[in-house]
Each structure stands twice: as C-alpha cells, then as structure tokens.
Amino acid sequence: MAVSKLFGAKIKRREDPRLITGRATYTDDMQISGLAYAEIVRSPHAHARIKRIDVEAARRQPGVVAVFTGKDLQGVINPIPTAWLIPNADLKTPPHPALAVDTVRYVGDGVAVVVAEDRYAARDAAAQVRVDYEILPAVVDQQQAMAAGAPLLHADVPNNQAFKWALGNGEATAAAFKEAARDGVVIAQRFLNQRLIPNAMETRSVVARYNSGSGDLTVWYTTQNPHIARFLMSVVTGLPEHKIRIVAPEVGGGFGSKIPFYADEAIVVFCARKTGRPVKWTEDRRENYLTTIHGRDHITDLEVAARRDGTITALRGKTWANLGAYLSTAGPGIPTILHGLMLTGCYTIPNLDYVVYGVFTNTTPVDAYRGAGRPEATYLIERIVDLVAAKLTLDPADVRRKNFIPPDKFPYTSAEGLAYDSGNYGPALDKALAAVDYRRLREEQKRGPRNGKLLGIGLSTYVEICGLGPSSVVGSTGFQGGLWESAVVRLHPTAKATVFTGTSPHGQGEETTFAQVVADELGLPIDDIEVVHGDTAAVPMGWGTYGSRTTVVGGAAIVLAARRVREKAAKIAAHLLEAAEKDIVFDQGRFYVRGSPDKAKTIQEVTLQAYLAWNLPPGVEPALEASAFYDPTNFTFPFGSHVAVVEVDAETGQVALKRYVAIDDCGRVINPLIVDGQVHGGLVQGIAQALYEGAAYGRDGQLITGTMADYAVPKAHMFPTFETGRTETPSPHNPLGVKGVGETGTIASTPAVVNAVADALRSYGITTHLDMPLTPERAWNAIHGQRREVKAR
Amino acid sequence: MKRAVKVTVNGKAYAHEVEPRLLLVHYIRDMLGLTGTHVGCDTSNCGACTILINGRAVKSCTLLAVQAEGASIQTVEGLATDGKLHPIQEGFWEEHGLQCGFCTPGMMLTAVDLLQRNPDPTEEQIRMGIEGNLCRCTGYQHIVNSIQHAARKMRGAAGRATPR
C-alpha cells in the first residue's frame, strides 16, 4: 500500500476558490427563464380556527400569477410525515397538512401561497390575502401543555402527549437510591435546556421546475440530504421517485435545520405544477425564525445517587421535551434515541431510570440542532457530576476520574445498552488540565476575588455517539431509513477521477478531505480528483450530511470504492507486466513486480489501457470505476475534555470567558486545519447556549426573539482564542479509523462554561443552580440576592 | 413610478430604471446578476450583504438602490484583479477562514475596509472590527487569522512592514 501522503496533511480547501470569489451558486442565486416567485401567507396567531380566507383582492394585484389555499392542496399534497417512529412509546402522529385548512397551530403555520412575477409583487399580494381567524387559547410550555385543562392541539392526542419513552431499570435504580440515601448522597436538581434557533446564515430556499411534457420534476434546494428529500417528496407529492431530481447546490450552513422535509418545499412544487412556471421561494430571516425548526427545549428533573467517595451509582429522571406544533422529520428521535441513550456519558454508572415525554405545544417544531439530543444529555451528566463533587467537597476532576470507564473495558456496554467502540478518557483530561495549569488556577481561586472578579474553572469530559449509523440498529429505533452510505470512484481515460458521495457536505470540507483519501489510495495528484455530491441525478442513493457521519460513513464508502478500483487496476497491471497479480506492488501511483521497481506501469497508463480494452486479462471488464455501499457495524464514540476559565464580575454579573481549552479525540485526523475549524464552530454554538442564546415565547405563543436583533447570535468579540489539542484513539471498526468531529464542540462546551460560572459563584458561597443563558442579570441576581460584599484584595 | 439610477460596480457603469423601493442588495443580485453578495437577515444584523461604497463597508440591505446614485461600488466579484486574488481572499483561503462560505463575501469586504483604516490591527481590534458581520460556522478564530494573514501581506506589499 502507498505510503500515506495526504492523510493527516493540513492542506487548503479545494471548495474555497468559488466561495471567495463570489462564483458559488446558492439556491437563491439561481435564475431560470420564466421564473416566478412564491410568498407564503402565514398565521400571525399561535392557535386559531380558520373561519374564512378571501384571496380575491390578492388575485387582482398586479403581477400575480396564482393564489392557493390549503383547500387547493387537499388530496394533491399528502400530509408532511415524520420519519422517526420511535417504538414502545405510544407515539402519536397527527396529520400535518402542508397548508393549514381548519386550524393553525403556531405562529408561522402556512395558510395560503401567492405566486407572482417578482418577489416584491408576491409580497404585496400576500398582504392582501384576508384570513378571518377565531383565536383559540395557546400553550407554549411543555409541562403546562400536559396539565389538565390545557388547550389541545390535535384532536386525537390527549394531554398533548406525543409519546412517553422509558429507559432503564426502575427496581435496581430504586435500590441504589435507597442505599445512597442511607450511606451516601442523593442530589436532585431541575435543569432547563433552553430552546435555540439554529441560524444557518443562508435561510431556506427552494426552486422547483416541473416539465409537464416529460413529467420530470427538478427541485434545487437547501437540504442536507437530497436523497431523503427525494424519497419524502415522492411520498408527499405522489410523483414517482425516478421522475424527481433533487439538487442541493451550494448550501450555506445547516446545523440540522436543513435535514427536515418542510411543508414549504411541497407547497412550492405544487405551485410549479399548477402554474406551469418554475417557482422560487426564499424565506426571509423572520420567517426562518418562525418556521425553520428550533432545537433543544427540555425541562428535566434529575436525581443522582453516589457513594461518599464520589462513585456514582445511579441516575433517575424525567424530561419533558417540547416538540412544537407538529412532529418534524426526526423530531421524536432526538430527545429519546440521541439523548436518553447517552445519559450516563463517559462513566461507569450501572443504574438508570429515565422517562422522556414528548409534548405538542403552539410553537415552532423542534428537531435536530447541532449535537441533537447529545448536548442536552451531556449538559445533564456533566452538571450533576459537578454537583456531586461540590456536595462531597471533592475536586470535580477527581470525581470524573473515579467514574471514568477504564481504558481496558472497551468495547464497553453502557447502562443504556450501547457498545462504545474505543476510548481512553484519562489522558485527554490530564492534557486539558495541564494546558490550563489547573493546580495553579485552584490556588489562585483560593486567594479569593481579585478586583471584584470571581474566578471559576469548569470541566466537561464528554463522550458522544455519531457516525450514524448501522442500519439494522437505527431501524430498531424506528428510524424509517438506513444510514449506510454510498460512493463511486470513477477514473476517466486520462486518469482524472470523479468521486461521487451520497453525503451532502455544506461547509464541512469533504470535497477536500475525501480527495485526500482517494489521492492516497490511488496515488493520484489531488488536483486530478473531483468530489461530486448533492445531486440525485448524478450520485447513487445516500443519506446525507448530519450526525457527524459524513467522513465516518461516507469516507469509509469512498475508501472501499477506491480500493476496489485499485484491485482492478492491479489485475490489469499484472497482465501488462506479464506477472502474477500476487507479485504486484502498488506504491504511490505505480504498479510493479516485487523487486523490479524500475519497470512499472503507472496508474495513468493502466487506466488508459482499461478504457482502450485492447489487451485486458481474461474475465476483466473494460473501464475503471467501482462503487461501494458501506453499512457501519457500529456507531463511533468521540470523546474529550474541555476546560473553561471564567471571571464573573460581582458588581455587574458579567461573565468573561478568559480561556477555553478543548482536547478532543475524534480518532484519526485527515486534515487538522478542517478539524480545528469544526471544533471552533462547535464551541461557539455551545458556549453561546451557556451565555447568550435563548428563544423566548410570550404566553400567547408569539416568538419574542423573532429577529436577529432580538436573538443573540454571537459575535467575534465574545470569545477568547480557543486552545485546541487532541489525543488519538482510532475507531477500531471504521476503515479510516475516524470518529467524527462536527458536533463535539457544541456537545462539550455548554456544561464546561456553566460549570465554570457555577464554580466561580460557589467559591463565593453561592450554590444556587442557574439556568442558561447565564446573562449578567441572572448572575447579578444570584450574587446580590445573597447580599454579599466583595472585598478587594 | 420608476426612477433612474446610475452606478459604477467593480469598475463597470450601469444605468437602470428601478422602483424607488428596490433595495440596493436586490438591485445588485437580481438586476446586475452579481449574486456573490448575499442576504442573511432583514434587520441589518448579519452583514452578509456588505459591499464597499466609495471605499467604505456598507450593508447593502439598508440602502435603496436609488440612494446609491452616482456611487462607486465594489462587490466580492471585483476583489480579484486580472485573475489574481486580493490578499484578503488569499488570507481566507490559506487560514481556512470559511466553511459554508455564505457570510464570506461580506466578511471579506468588511475586513478590507478595516485594514484600509488600520493596517496593523490587534486581535481585539479585528474581533471588534467585524462585529457587524455574523458567521455561524467558523467560530471566528480562523477569520481572525485570515485577516491577520491579509494584513501582513498588504503591509508587505505597501512596503512598510511595521514591526509588531
């Protein structure tokens, strides 16, 4: 095998030239002749009955092509489905019409659509659509929604309970709690994991074109998973899958918010078919805040049982997960499978008893947002480990070490039943503590506040599940799909290569990392390799980009396909060299007979011969390409240790993040520059949950944080320079040894920062748990509610 | 009633009749076909639509096209000259200053304005200087590195490499 040259190399991204010169094509950049524009009329009420819709005035507006309401779509566009039917949870799947017919259930629910000659005309006309509503009482809080007498969203869903999902062993857990109550400690705490708005910088956009002559539908749109979109588009529109082409052009970030199949793409397709015009729809940011999925929104009551030496023996808890008004595509799976199954984290906690209620409310649907369930789980376990340490006056690093899964126990089966593939948690923690000089910081903290600033140090030792995932396992969790991945590696006669992947990267850099992998496998110059993704007409079925799966699963498919190409090339080379195949050596793009490196056939020569097919070995077909469909045998489990150092200003409650160290282990690293970029981006989203971001609804269901002026998308000056480092524990079952790194920063950083602020306040005698975001107001109230004077030192 | 507007964009003169309410960013994207300038919000917070008007960074969603009458505008498409990347483009490429690329044109033009006013900014000055531009992908750190890279390059090219 060729000596690896590019695997591990810090090379510049190959997707960048088009992006830095303004030559990339995002969906809204598309121009097609005859293009019309759609504007969706949306409910201003969180819960209301539609009494009457009058579209006549809108129809008379200049430039209007057509106006449609929910009634026009009935029987043509099927309800928008959810794709994660979690079993044994009494899951309710009430219908979700693409445009509401009788009832609107959240602010932003679509009621009509206007198609016009340009976007200004469409918006003018939309303002003329008259809807008479009978306003109904709304409910936005998930616990209130389950209370007796709460307004009901869906006719056949009592108490608004979408599901009840349970995990663990109640009896054994109860016994562990009994023992801890007698001889150890039991701590109970309510944790809120506030609702977040994903805020991909590009809003969603759809361009649909239907050819009534051929019956072909082409949809260009902002999706992370074009093949899933095609599958669901077929289900929703009734058009046959082979007549649908979905293209994800340049996509401007997703973070999970471009996984779901939304009502809007079905509405735009309906408009294109009905009007015979290609139709474009692009949401504005306010619309994005109202209708693109939100993330998180959990209320959790959690208890922990521990021995006096810090050994944690059990967790018991209940979570109420707000799902919004309808089940989004992956909605039910996020707070259950991707959350509950990671609750015990990186610790040998033997007993668990956990229940999750999924609840409908009059709010925007909730689905996967970066980390998707795992940040919520990591927040719970990493906060409660700190509470155990505080209660027992032990160092939080020591409590973590005491409970870590030891390195010789891998593969390790967790209390939740997952098999963690590999891990070595201690060295990552040691490295992170050394990086901040932990002992010195603790000594400094003991000396008390300096200039009214309270020093806090927060740890987070996380493990997460990604590389989604083995199809039979995800099938058993009710996910209505497989999560294998496809690849085609095609060499052209001149030995230039096109690599097709069923994943659909949108900023993660796999056009570069996948080319690095193929360059090594085939000994080709990287400039001779093009990676193609995001077009169902070009790429075989695949499942897209999310869940830190692209490099792990998609990369594995690519390396397998590349190796098949190499095997075939070796057969041809052996024939050309008149040698036995077993005697052929491949080294950096050259095939030769062992011991005779001077007489070689290059991959370029062999490829040309494969296409000329004048002299192929018997039984070998012409051409040189191979495909692979890779279904992983397990998930991967990246881990690491993060340390946040904060100063809390006792006068103002302002939290200053002074240092942030992230030591991550994502297995083998293909491109360190790209891995660092993924970590940085994840950190900012996780830290922002701890300190800045949070969606807020009024009791009437109005989104108060409804614009970018009201919701705190963080800015550059809110962060220090991050200090990143790595340990490397390859995944034993992945052909590349990689583990995934797209979400680690988000998963790990939220509890690290909250633990640091809590640590600062604790050093000052304040032990109240504070809910996120830790705004100056919240910290100030905690400090001044206790009426302490800060002594200058 | 439409109004006449004449502008120079990336050195090329344009004249159009436009609705008075037409936003400058829509004029640039839809009428001139220069789609490298993006729209990321509707409240002038995100900065994805940042362009240079007479050399200064401006959010093109906050202006009407008619207000740009007579202006000299530069967009991302005009940054590279004669096929050679501008130092800010080189910086973003070298230092992995972008991921999805959506905020990048606006971010680079803001940086150009910043470096014109302050050729040797500190990290803190860069972080404050780009506060009108949001990025959701990079965590900003590689953007800071990219701008520092460009600053070094531009100072070198200007022949006045200031010691740090």
TrEMBL record, chain A:
Key word Oxidoreductase present: yes
Cofactors required: Mo-molybdopterin cytosine dinucleotide
Q: Which organism is it from?
A: Candidatus Segetimicrobium genomatis
Q: Which GO terms describe its molecular function?
A: iron ion binding; oxidoreductase activity
Secretion signal, residue range per the UniProt entry: none
| Keyword flag Oxidoreductase | yes
Q: Which UniProt keywords apply?
A: Molybdenum, Oxidoreductase
Q: What is this protein called?
A: Xanthine dehydrogenase family protein molybdopterin-binding subunit
Domain Aldehyde oxidase/xanthine dehydrogenase a/b hammerhead span(s) in chain numbering: 21-137
UniProtKB/TrEMBL annotation, chain B:
| Family annotation (PROSITE patterns) | 2FE2S_FER_2
A family per Pfam: Fer2_2
Any idea which UniProt keywords this protein has? 2Fe-2S, Iron, Iron-sulfur, Metal-binding, Oxidoreductase
Q: Which residues form the 2Fe-2S ferredoxin-type domain?
A: 3-79
InterPro entries attached to this UniProt entry:
2Fe-2S-bd, 2Fe-2S-bd_dom_sf, 2Fe-2S_ferredoxin-like_sf, 2Fe-2S_ferredoxin-type, Beta-grasp_dom_sf, Diverse_Oxidoreductases
The yes or no answer to whether the keyword Cytoplasm is present is: no
Lineage: superkingdom: Bacteria
Its UniProt pathway annotation is: Alkaloid degradation; nicotine degradation
An example molecular function term from Gene Ontology annotations: 2 iron, 2 sulfur cluster binding
Protein name per UniProt: (2Fe-2S)-binding protein
Taxonomy of origin reads:
Bacteria, Bacillati, Candidatus Sysuimicrobiota, Candidatus Sysuimicrobiia, Candidatus Sysuimicrobiales
